[in-house]
Task: inverse folding
């Protein structure tokens, strides 16, 4: 990765517009702070149920955001993000079950290690292939992990999964207390915000520019001299790490790890969040996750638990692809990436 | 020497022969599914995620027709026809607007279709699996097993359908249109071939093949809403191993993969035997990414 960085595409145009660009930055960060402030205050206002709901939306949003790095920026669709999510979950579960007293940071580290292992495996094999083949092989690889976790009952608990207790929210020398739903929410919010800032920085870095040029024209990027496969592997691994982080958060929030989350459906829903919210925006997938989860909640409240909510949501999903291919936040895509 | 002789003696020959028959039978069903999948991909550049659900729908319609009329053969034809119409309708409504867009969009749309169909089946037919009787009850003796003739019939019928389809591609006018479109879409259109109609027709034929295999397969285990995913995953593996868009390669790969899984099931739990085909896929990706059964890597 010693190649020269690409120029940012906007740099030429941005020069004479120095003033407009400054105001864009100001508006962006003001909006960012407003949203974060709202999310910080939210748990103080909401009821217990909606507090948990919002936290879960943030976690699913993080998972979807990680997959956006692949779909929206590298231009490859992963149908295997459940593997990274699940390995993060089981990695965290392993640390929480073996170490006493359970340690939050150890759980995060071990979950990330699990996800990184899965990501390395998937990245090595599937980045040899282009778009459609990549989607199929990631799907098949995630099923490998599912079969292993489902059948290896001695270690993973098989179909029943693993149950454990939540670690304390422990910040060395500063804070040590049990998680409440409010502190859990703030913790998740902090992790998701940090992940967003890191991913935003990555997509705007020279590395991110190369990824976007792979998305726009892979043969040309290769012809310029970039080692496309290596860049793709890096992006799959990075994406897998953040997906694993989402898995850790989910495990800590719900105090269990279950093979259902490694199943293909989780990957599929991740893709749906991306497409609904708008790919290539990083925040779009979070909005998509919120939209999906809220619609599901409202549908099952309105029509009862047995209502097949995936039918109307699936039809909405198809309609969005056909009529609104940029997703709900697509109109703001350029603005958000500046 | 003693160790080698012992190893060969430890291989249960009767089991191997039984599993070979089993493998070829499932392989032929798989070949029927995968050839529809690879046909749709080869001609339309569409990876049909909903293929497993069309298979499942075919099986359900088969169940309904059998309970209504009692005739298995009517069910086979009825399911193929109804699912062909369903496939054509789906193609016109969802895939036609996407022609000319990035092929990734088609994966997403067909994934959406598969979600809707699967949940519709769950909602409509419930989670309990349905069973239909085998149309031929007689058995023959294979070592200590009473092996049903019906399974042999499945393999023969699948082969007949694939063969008939091949003849159709080779000699009928529509088949020539399909092959022309596969070779060069723009040129085919310029020569007056109604390409959108060819696309719809191809999707309908692929759907009908999936439905037919669904009905053929239904008596052996049973029908439930989630059966599609297993088969579509296997079919994806087959299609990648056989070389995407390559009909002959898919058929060879289907039998190859099924045989591998049957042999693995001698020593492993059936649910773990799936891993063997995953390994076959990984090895193929490593050494022959264009597919095992493609003569010249492109």
Result:
């Amino acid at each position: 990765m010693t190649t020269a960085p690409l120029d940012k595409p906007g740099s030429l145009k941005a020069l004479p517009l120095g003033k407009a660009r400054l105001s864009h930055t100001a508006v962006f960060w003001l909006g960012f702070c407003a949203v974060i402030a709202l999310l910080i205050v939210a748990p103080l206002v909401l009821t217990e149920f909606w507090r948990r709901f919002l936290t879960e939306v943030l976690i699913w949003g993080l998972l979807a955001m990680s997959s956006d790095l692949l779909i929206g920026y590298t231009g490859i669709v992963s149908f295997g993000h459940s593997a990274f999510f699940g390995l993060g979950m089981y990695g965290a579960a392993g640390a929480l079950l073996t170490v006493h007293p359970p340690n939050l940071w150890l759980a995060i580290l071990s979950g990330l290690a699990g996800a990184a292992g899965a990501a390395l495996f998937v990245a090595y094999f599937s980045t040899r292939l282009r778009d459609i083949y990549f989607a199929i092989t990631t799907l098949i690889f995630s099923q490998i992990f599912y079969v292993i976790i489902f059948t290896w009952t001695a270690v993973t608990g098989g179909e029943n999964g693993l149950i454990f207790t939540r670690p304390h929210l422990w910040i060395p020398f500063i804070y040590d207390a049990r998680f409440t739903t409010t502190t859990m929410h703030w913790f998740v919010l902090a992790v998701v915000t940090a992940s967003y800032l890191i991913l935003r920085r990555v997509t705007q870095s020279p590395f991110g520019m190369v990824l976007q040029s792979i998305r726009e024209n892979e043969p040309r990027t290769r012809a310029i001299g970039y080692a496309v496969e290596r860049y793709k592997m890096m992006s799959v691994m990075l994406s897998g790490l953040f997906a694993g982080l989402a898995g850790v958060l989910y495990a800590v929030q719900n105090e269990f790890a279950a093979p259902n989350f490694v199943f293909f459906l989780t990957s599929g829903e991740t893709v749906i969040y991306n497409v609904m919210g708008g790919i290539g925006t990083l925040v779009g997938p979070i909005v998509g996750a919120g939209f999906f989860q809220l619609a599901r909640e409202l549908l099952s409240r309105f029509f009862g638990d047995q209502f097949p909510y995936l039918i109307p949501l699936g039809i909405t999903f198809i309609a969005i692809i056909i009529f609104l291919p940029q997703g709900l936040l697509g109109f703001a895509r350029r603005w958000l990436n500046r | 020497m003693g160790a080698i002789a012992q190893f060969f003696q430890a291989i249960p020959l009767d089991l191997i022969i039984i599993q070979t028959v089993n493998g070829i039978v499932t392989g032929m069903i798989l070949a029927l599914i995968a050839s529809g999948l690879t046909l749709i991909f080869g001609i339309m550049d569409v990876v049909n995620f909903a293929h497993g659900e069309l298979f499942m729908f075919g099986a359900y319609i088969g169940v309904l027709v059998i309970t209504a009329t009692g005739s298995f053969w009517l069910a086979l034809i009825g399911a193929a026809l109804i699912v062909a119409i369903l496939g054509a309708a789906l193609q016109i409504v969802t895939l036609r607007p996407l022609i000319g867009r990035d092929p990734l969009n088609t994966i997403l749309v067909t994934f959406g279709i598969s979600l809707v169909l699967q949940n519709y089946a769950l909602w409509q037919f419930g989670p309990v699996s349905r069973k239909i009787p085998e149309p031929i009850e007689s058995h023959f003796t294979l070592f200590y097993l009473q092996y049903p003739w019906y399974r042999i019939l499945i393999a023969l019928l699948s082969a007949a359908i694939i063969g008939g389809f091949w003849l159709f591609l080779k000699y009928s006018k529509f088949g020539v249109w399909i092959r022309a479109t596969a070779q060069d879409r723009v040129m085919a259109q310029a020569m007056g071939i109604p390409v959108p109609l060819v696309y719809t027709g191809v999707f309908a034929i692929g759907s009908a093949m999936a439905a037919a295999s669904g009905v053929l397969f239904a008596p052996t285990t049973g029908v439930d809403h989630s059966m599609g995913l297993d088969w579509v995953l296997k079919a994806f593996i087959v299609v990648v191993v056989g070389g995407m868009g390559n009909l002959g390669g898919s058929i060879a790969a289907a039998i190859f993969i099924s045989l591998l899984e049957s042999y693995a099931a001698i020593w492993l739990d059936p649910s773990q035997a799936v891993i063997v085909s995953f390994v076959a896929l990984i090895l193929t990706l490593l050494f022959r990414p264009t597919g095992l059964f493609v003569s010249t890597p492109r």
